[in-house]
C-alpha cells in the first residue's frame, strides 16, 4: 500500500499490539527482520505482476481467474496473525463498533477490492508489464487527491508537483503511438487496458482512504492484529466475489481447455496460478510487517520504490520494448516518486520534532 496519508496501523508514538519480544530485539535482529520484509514487499509485488503477465503470454485468458488469484491465498496472512500474542480482551473493551458495522465495512471494502482487482486484470491482459506498472504509479497522485477530500490531508507544493508529474507520465504512455502491446492486442484494446489500469489505480487509492477513514472514525482501533484481520476478511469477501464472477461469467467452462493448451504445460499452468496467489500475499505481509517494525511512512516509501522497480524488472524478464516516450515517462515518474518521498520525509521530521518538544515539555524543572 502506498499513499499520502497518516499511518493506518500502529502509530509511531504507540506500541499498542506490538509483542514484547519485538521490543527486546537486538539491533542486528531488527535490521534482519526489516530487510526480510522489504524483500517481501518489493519482490512480492514485482513477482506477482510478472507472473500475471506470464500467465497471459503463455495462453491464459481468464480475467476472473487472474482476479481470483490476487486474493485467494489470504489464509497465508493467518501466519503472522497467529504469531501475534492475543490482545482480544484489550481490544474488546476498547471497541465501540458493533459487529454488524464491522461486517458491513468488510463486505463493502471486499467488494471494492474485487472490482479493483478485475480492472487490474483487464489492464494487464492488454498492456505489457512495464507499461502497466508505469500507469499503476498514478495511484500516488490519486491517493493525494482522495486523502485531501476524505482524510483532510494537506496538499503541499511537493505533493502537487508529484501529482502533476505522475499525471504527465501517464499521459505520455496513453499518447504513445509506438506502444509495445502484447501479441495480438489492437490499438483499441490497448486503450481499454490503459483506461482500466488507470481506473484501478484510482479505485485502489480511494480504497486506501476509505480504510483509513474506517480506522479513524468507525473502528477507532489501529493495532497490528486489527489491521491484519481487516486484510484477511476483506480478502475473503473479494475471493468469494471473484468465485461468483468466475462461474456467473461462464469462464469456468474454459479453464480445462486453457490448462491443456497452456504453452508451458499443465503443471506450469497450475504453478503459475499458485505462485501468483502466493506472491500477492507475500507482498501484503511485507507491507504490514514494515509498518509493524518501523512506521507506516517507511512502508509507504518502500511501496513507492517497488512501483519503480517493477517496470525495470519487466524490461529484464520480458525484454519489453523501450521507446523514447516510455523512457521519458519513466524518468518523469521517478521525479514524481522523489517529490512524494521527500514530502513524506519532511512530514516525518515534523512529527519527530513535535514529539521531542512534547516530551521536553513534560520534564519537570529542578527544584
UniProtKB/TrEMBL annotation:
<feature type="transmembrane region" description="Helical">
    <location>
        <begin position="325"/>
        <end position="342"/>
    </location>
</feature>
<dbReference type="InterPro" id="IPR030182">
    <property type="entry name" value="PUP_plant"/>
</dbReference>
<feature type="transmembrane region" description="Helical">
    <location>
        <begin position="298"/>
        <end position="318"/>
    </location>
</feature>
<dbReference type="GO" id="GO:0016020">
    <property type="term" value="C:membrane"/>
</dbReference>
<keyword id="KW-1133">Transmembrane helix</keyword>
<dbReference type="Pfam" id="PF16913">
    <property type="entry name" value="PUNUT"/>
</dbReference>
<protein>
    <recommendedName>
        <fullName>Probable purine permease</fullName>
    </recommendedName>
</protein>
<dbReference type="InterPro" id="IPR037185">
    <property type="entry name" value="EmrE-like"/>
</dbReference>
<feature type="transmembrane region" description="Helical">
    <location>
        <begin position="230"/>
        <end position="248"/>
    </location>
</feature>
<feature type="transmembrane region" description="Helical">
    <location>
        <begin position="156"/>
        <end position="176"/>
    </location>
</feature>
<dbReference type="GO" id="GO:0005345">
    <property type="term" value="F:purine nucleobase transmembrane transporter activity"/>
</dbReference>
<dbReference type="GO" id="GO:0015211">
    <property type="term" value="F:purine nucleoside transmembrane transporter activity"/>
</dbReference>
<feature type="transmembrane region" description="Helical">
    <location>
        <begin position="269"/>
        <end position="292"/>
    </location>
</feature>
<keyword id="KW-0812">Transmembrane</keyword>
<comment type="similarity">
    <text>Belongs to the purine permeases (TC 2.A.7.14) family.</text>
</comment>
<feature type="transmembrane region" description="Helical">
    <location>
        <begin position="188"/>
        <end position="210"/>
    </location>
</feature>
<feature type="transmembrane region" description="Helical">
    <location>
        <begin position="30"/>
        <end position="52"/>
    </location>
</feature>
<feature type="transmembrane region" description="Helical">
    <location>
        <begin position="132"/>
        <end position="150"/>
    </location>
</feature>
<keyword id="KW-0472">Membrane</keyword>
<feature type="transmembrane region" description="Helical">
    <location>
        <begin position="64"/>
        <end position="81"/>
    </location>
</feature>
<feature type="transmembrane region" description="Helical">
    <location>
        <begin position="101"/>
        <end position="120"/>
    </location>
</feature>
<keyword id="KW-0813">Transport</keyword>
Amino acid at each position: 500500500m502506498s499513499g499520502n496519508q497518516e499511518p493506518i496501523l500502529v502509530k509511531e508514538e504507540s506500541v499498542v499490539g506490538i509483542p514484547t519480544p519485538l521490543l527486546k530485539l537486538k539491533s542486528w535482529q531488527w535490521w534482519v527482520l526489516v530487510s526480510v520484509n522489504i524483500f517481501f514487499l518489493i519482490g512480492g509485488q514485482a513477482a506477482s505482476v510478472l507472473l500475471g503477465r506470464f500467465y497471459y503470454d503463455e495462453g491464459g485468458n481468464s480475467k476472473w481467474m487472474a482476479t481470483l488469484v490476487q486474493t485467494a491465498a489470504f489464509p497465508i496472512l493467518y501466519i503472522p496473525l497467529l504469531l501475534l500474542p492475543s490482545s482480544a480482551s484489550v481490544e474488546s473493551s476498547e471497541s465501540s463498533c458493533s459487529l454488524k458495522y464491522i461486517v458491513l465495512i468488510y463486505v463493502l471494502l471486499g467488494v471494492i477490492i474485487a472490482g479493483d482487482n478485475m480492472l487490474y486484470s483487464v489492464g494487464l491482459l492488454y498492456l505489457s508489464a512495464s507499461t502497466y506498472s508505469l500507469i499503476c504509479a498514478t495511484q500516488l497522485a490519486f491517493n493525494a487527491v482522495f486523502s485531501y477530500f476524505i482524510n483532510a490531508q494537506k496538499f503541499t507544493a511537493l505533493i502537487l508537483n508529484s501529482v502533476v508529474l505522475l499525471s504527465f507520465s501517464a499521459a505520455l504512455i496513453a499518447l504513445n503511438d509506438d506502444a509495445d502491446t502484447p501479441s495480438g492486442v489492437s490499438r483499441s484494446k490497448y486503450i481499454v487496458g490503459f483506461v482500466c489500469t488507470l481506473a484501478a489505480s484510482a479505485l485502489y487509492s480511494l480504497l486506501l482512504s476509505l480504510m483509513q477513514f474506517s480506522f479513524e472514525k468507525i473502528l477507532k482501533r489501529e493495532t497490528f492484529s486489527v489491521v491484519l484481520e481487516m486484510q484477511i476478511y476483506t480478502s475473503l469477501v473479494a475471493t468469494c466475489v471473484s468465485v461468483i464472477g468466475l462461474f456467473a461469467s461462464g469462464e469456468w467452462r474454459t479453464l480445462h481447455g486453457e490448462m491443456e493448451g497452456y504453452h508451458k504445460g499443465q503443471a506450469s499452468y497450475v504453478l503459475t496460478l499458485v505462485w501468483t496467489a502466493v506472491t500477492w500475499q507475500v507482498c501484503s505481509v511485507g507491507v504490514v510487517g514494515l509498518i509493524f517494525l518501523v512506521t507506516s511512512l517507511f512502508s509507504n516509501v518502500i511501496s513507492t520504490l517497488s512501483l519503480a522497480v517493477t517496470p525495470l524488472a519487466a524490461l529484464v524478464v520480458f525484454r519489453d520494448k523501450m521507446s523514447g516516450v516510455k523512457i521519458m515517462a519513466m524518468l518523469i515518474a521517478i521525479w514524481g516518486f522523489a517529490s512524494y518521498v521527500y514530502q513524506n520525509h519532511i512530514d516525518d521530521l515534523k512529527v519527530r520534532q513535535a514529539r521531542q518538544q512534547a516530551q521536553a515539555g513534560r520534564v519537570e524543572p529542578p527544584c
